[in-house]
Every structure is written in C-alpha cells, then in structure tokens.
C-alpha cells in the first residue's frame, strides 16, 4: 500500500450563496441556482460553473488516503 494525499474542496456560489461539497467519488453537487458545481469527493476535484458565474473556494484541504497496488 502507498500512502498519498487526496484533496477536497468546499465552494460557495456567488449568486445564491449556497455552500457545496462533493462527499464521495462521482457525487455531483450543484448549488440551488445551478450555476456552480463540484464532483469527485476526495478522489479527484472537478469544479465547473456557467459562463460568467462567480464562486469562492472556502476551503481546500488534503485527506490522507491509501492506494492499493494493482500488480
């Protein structure tokens, strides 16, 4: 097993002020107005927004994890 750091992020939409965080892999989380979203939990980070939408990254942090050997 190899230890490595994963990352996670918490966002706030500039329009509706919703605070969002993806909780796990393939968990698509969008704000109420649909202008900002994130995906990936602590497995990967994907952030998206409608053109011209504003958002703030409230927190970005590392999470200790393990990666299994595949060979």
Description of the structure:
The protein is mostly beta strands. It has one domain. It contains no helices and six strands. The C terminus is likely disordered. The N and C termini lie close together (11 Å). β4 and β5 form a beta hairpin. Strands 2-1-6 form a three-stranded antiparallel β-sheet, with no helix packed on it. The chain has a three-stranded antiparallel β-sheet with strand order 3-4-5, with no helix packed on it.
Distance between the termini: 11 Å
| Helix content, binned percent | under 10%
Strand numbers in spatial order across the main sheet: 2-1-6
State the shape: globular
Quick overview of this protein structure:
The chain is an all-beta fold and 71 residues long.
Defining key terms:
mainly beta, 0% helix, single chain, 3-stranded antiparallel beta sheet, disordered C terminus
Topology:
Blueprint: E1 2-13, E2 19-20, E3 29-30, E4 36-39, E5 46-49, E6 55-67
